[in-house]
């Protein structure tokens, strides 16, 4: 048996036998796949399909821009770096520039890709593209109709306090704070 590119699959590869769509929403879809396990048995895998997202570590005068908004799945307010989903056919860098300006009112004159990572590979295909900028000019925020948030610029010490208090607890913002700390200590990411 071989994969599409001609390579031999990994011994732990799970072959999809059937894929059943369960839900199609505005942002995500859910499917249940029946797979053949490496031992020949079958199992089901619930998979969330997501178009991908972007997030920006944006520094202005030595402080990081963050937004605070209510997150319904957590039932609480959350402090996060500016972020959002990719629109259909949108390039990640364009989305990062768009989301930064929409949520914070700042336009990046230049932006740099830091890394792309899977957010929850156990059940979701979402990949988040993380960018950095410290080359900003003030503009005006343009929030979506269903988006309610506040924006502030915080120090590294404030960010670490927000983590300790649980106000920052999402992976992308934790990663951003740790990357910012490394950048502060070493001058690079």
Automatic annotation (TrEMBL):
**Keyword Hydrolase belongs to the record:** yes
Q: Which PROSITE patterns match?
A: NUDIX (PS51462), NUDIX_BOX (PS00893)
Q: Name one Pfam family in it.
A: NUDIX
Ranges of residues in domain Nudix hydrolase = 48-176
Needed cofactors: Mg(2+)
The cross-references to InterPro entries, in alphabetical order and at most eight, read:
Nudix_hydrolase, NUDIX_hydrolase-like_dom_sf, NUDIX_hydrolase_CS, NUDIX_hydrolase_dom
Any idea which UniProt keywords this protein has?
Answer: Hydrolase
Q: Does the keyword DNA-binding apply?
A: no
Query: Which superkingdom is the protein from?
Result: Bacteria
Q: Which family does it belong to?
A: Belongs to the Nudix hydrolase family.
Protein name stated in the entry: NUDIX domain-containing protein
Q: Which organism is it from?
A: Cohnella boryungensis
């Amino acid at each position: 048996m071989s994969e599409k590119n001609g390579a031999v699959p990994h011994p732990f590869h799970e072959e999809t036998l059937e894929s059943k769509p369960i839900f199609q929403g505005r942002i995500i879809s859910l499917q249940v796949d029946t797979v053949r396990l490496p031992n020949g048995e079958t199992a089901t895998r619930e998979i969330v399909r997501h178009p991908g997202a972007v997030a920006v570590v944006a520094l202005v005068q030595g402080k990081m821009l963050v937004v605070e908004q209510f997150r319904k799945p957590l039932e609480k307010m959350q402090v996060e770096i500016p972020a959002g989903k990719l629109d259909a056919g949108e390039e990640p860098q364009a989305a990062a520039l768009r989301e930064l300006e929409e949520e914070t009112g700042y336009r990046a004159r230049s932006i740099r890709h830091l890394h792309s990572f899977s957010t929850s590979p156990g059940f979701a295909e979402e990949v988040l593209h993380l960018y950095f900028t410290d080359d900003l000019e003030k503009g005006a925020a343009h929030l979506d109709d269903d988006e309610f948030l506040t924006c502030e610029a915080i120090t590294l010490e404030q960010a670490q306090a927000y983590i300790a208090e649980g106000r920052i607890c999402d992976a992308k913002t934790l990663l951003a704070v740790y990357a910012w700390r490394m950048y502060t200590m070493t001058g690079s990411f």
